[in-house]
Design brief:
Elements: H1 2-15, H2 20-24, H3 31-38, H4 46-56, H5 61-74, H6 84-90, E1 93-98, H7 109-119, H8 125-137, E2 149-155, H9 157-160, H10 166-183, E3 186-190, E4 203-208, E5 215-219, E6 224-227, H11 230-246, H12 250-271
Parallel strand pairs: 1-2, 2-3
Antiparallel strand pairs: 1-4, 4-5, 5-6
InterPro entries: Cro/C1-type_HTH, DUF5753, Lambda_DNA-bd_dom_sf
GO molecular function, one term: DNA binding
Pfam families: DUF5753, HTH_31
Length: about 270
């Protein structure tokens, strides 16, 4: 549905003989934003749908189908999280703080399934499977040539307190190590000895964009919030920088991840 919606927008624009720049003029949106919509990579906000219908004289087509496309994009994700995958695709930088679980972009299938099952024990299997598929689909991020620069800080407890059997934990940690080695992402481990630090209260993601102000994302068990108020985003930025300073170096962090992975791998072999 999002791809069809974007292809129709491109078709109507080309039929009208307009460039991306000409269509976006007066809409308060950027050219790259519109291009991502045409490629099916980002959702269409209602204000832009109204603008496109007006300029292209499409009799309300994009307004009428805007919500349907948005629902299709949300498939498998909680409604409060629906905008995050699109923002990850268009971001210039992404910085994660993961105190409780491995960041979604780095999760293996086994890890994603365990999280999905644990978060909604009452959900039927088909809903759990949709959530797993949606989370794994975000991993396409790593194959994009234009992907954001990624920086993650993980609590050491994620390595020391396994939520999966040893074999699966080894796979998860080896996957993180492989991403570090092959994608130039930066991952740091916050040692367990850092018991008092600047982000003790929960999950945080900060994203910057080429043509838009930065945002912060915070999340709880069943809710999340995108924060775009500049002074508050600046405060989160300062807290993240302090956390970064308290974490181990990238090289020491990779060594710790690899050591933990070997430990789980050895444990799995001994138990087989």
């Amino acid at each position: 549905m999002p791809c069809f919606y974007g292809a129709e927008l491109r078709h109507q624009r080309e039929q009208a003989g307009l460039t991306l720049e000409q269509l976006v003029e007066g809409s308060f949106r950027g050219i790259s934003y519109l291009s991502q919509i045409e490629r099916g990579e980002r959702g269409m906000p209602m204000d832009l749908a109204v603008h496109c219908d007006t300029v292209l004289k499409t009799d309300g087509f994009f307004q009428r189908h805007c919500e349907a496309a948005a629902k299709a994009r949300r498939a498998g994700h909680p409604e409060y999280f629906a905008d995050i995958p699109d923002l990850e695709k268009s971001a210039a930088t992404i910085e994660d703080w993961a105190p409780f679980i491995v960041p979604g972009l780095m999760q293996t299938e086994a890890y994603a399934r365990k999280i999905a099952q644990s978060a909604a024990l009452w959900a039927p299997p088909e809903i759990v499977e949709k959530r797993v598929c949606a989370r794994l689909a975000r991993a396409a991020f790593w194959k994009r040539e234009d992907r954001a620069t990624y920086w993650g800080i993980l609590a050491e407890s994620l390595l020391r307190k396994p939520i999966l059997p040893p074999e699966d934990m080894a796979e998860q940690l080896e996957h993180i190590a492989e991403l570090i080695r092959t994608t130039q992402c930066v991952v740091q481990i916050l040692p367990e000895t850092e018991t008092c630090h600047s982000l003790m209260m929960g999950v945080l993601k900060i994203m910057t964009f080429p043509e838009a102000p930065p945002v912060a994302w915070t999340e709880g068990c069943h809710s999340g919030q995108i924060i775009d108020y500049p002074p508050l985003v600046k405060d989160y930025r300062s807290s993240y920088d302090l956390l970064r300073a308290a974490a181990l170096s990238p090289r020491a962090s990779l060594a710790m991840i690899e050591e933990a992975a070997r430990g789980y791998s050895d444990e799995a072999q001994q138990g087989s």
